[in-house]
Write a structure and sequence with these properties.
This protein is α+β, with helices and mostly antiparallel strands. The protein has one domain. The chain is built from 9 helices and 4 strands, in the order E-E-E-E-H-H-H-H-H-H-H-H-H. It has helices at about 40-50, 55-65, 70-85, 95-140, 145-150, 160-180, 185-200, 205-220, 225-250, and strands spanning about 5-10, 10-15, 20-25, 30-40. A 4-stranded antiparallel β-sheet has the order 1-2-3-4, with helices on one face. A hairpin with a 2-residue loop joins strand 1 and strand 2. Helix 3 (about 70-85) runs antiparallel to helix 4 and helix 4 crosses helix 9. It is globular, with a radius of gyration of 20 Å. The two termini are about 15 Å apart.
């Protein structure tokens, strides 16, 4: 089985193969259930499409895997940025400076809220997701004990994109303000360039980005999980493997 990644949220761990998504959920009563869904052909084709801009692919894939909470946060952030830019046209220098300051304050507020939410509600589940993926990638282990001993710090974590994309957005905003041009043009060009670097080279191979990604996981995005988080991730892994085996048996 090719395990290509996963996602997690409070009380939930999802692991993905090329054909299936397995989402294990731990209820308030501690009972764990799991739903396995076959990957829709549209998303399979989307991943394999090398002609579509990487920015569009990333937005579509993130939106497809996002929870309602994540969609609300992302939608609110985009709406806020658009509103600030509409209220302060970029062709007026004084308002451009005010726009930049308001955007920075909004960015800091959103970042603080995201960090606090992640550390309180998601970090342990995120760690369990990493640990289940780690043991499968390293030696194809499937036991609960192996998952509990897995490594929660993974270079393949999506957090590797945080620093490159953050710097890209800030540089694009500065250049746009300096040239008195639309920020959106520089955002799109910059993001596409950063994502192309990820696609062809991989940001995890850049030492500074790699170290920051590991620091981010150790201190913010993951935390040592408890028994319920580990068991939930283990269930997701087992269900995904079972679905893959059944699909292989059904294939002539």
């Amino acid at each position: 089985m090719e395990l290509i990644g996963g996602s997690s949220g409070h009380g939930r761990v999802t692991l993905c193969s090329a054909r299936f998504n397995a989402t294990a959920t731990c209820g308030e009563d501690g009972k764990i259930s799991c739903k396995v869904r076959r990957e829709k052909s549209f998303w399979v084709l989307l991943r394999k499409n090398h002609l579509m801009p990487m920015t569009v692919k990333l937005v579509l894939l993130l939106w497809a895997g996002a929870t309602d909470m994540m969609k609300a946060v992302l939608g609110g952030a985009v709406l806020g940025i658009i509103t600030v830019n509409l209220l302060s046209p970029s062709h007026q220098p004084t308002r451009t400076l005010r726009t930049a300051l308001l955007s920075e304050l909004a960015s800091i507020l959103i970042l603080v809220i995201f960090v606090l939410y992640t550390k309180k509600w998601v970090a342990t589940w995120h760690a369990a997701e990493h640990m289940a993926a780690d043991v499968w990638w390293r030696n194809r282990s499937t036991s609960l004990e192996a998952v509990a001993a897995g490594d929660r710090i993974q270079d393949a974590c999506g957090g590797r994109l945080f620093l490159p994309l953050f710097l890209t957005v800030k540089i694009a905003a500065y250049v746009a303000m300096t040239l008195q041009m639309s920020q959106w043009l520089f955002y799109l060009v910059g993001l596409e360039a950063a994502l192309q670097v990820e696609h062809w080279i991989g940001w995890s191979r850049v030492p500074g980005v790699q170290r920051f990604n590991r620091w981010l996981q150790r201190n913010i995005s993951t935390a040592p999980p408890g028994a319920k988080e580990i068991e939930t991730a283990h269930v997701a892994l087992i269900c995904l493997i079972y679905a893959e085996e059944k699909a292989d048996e059904a294939t002539p």
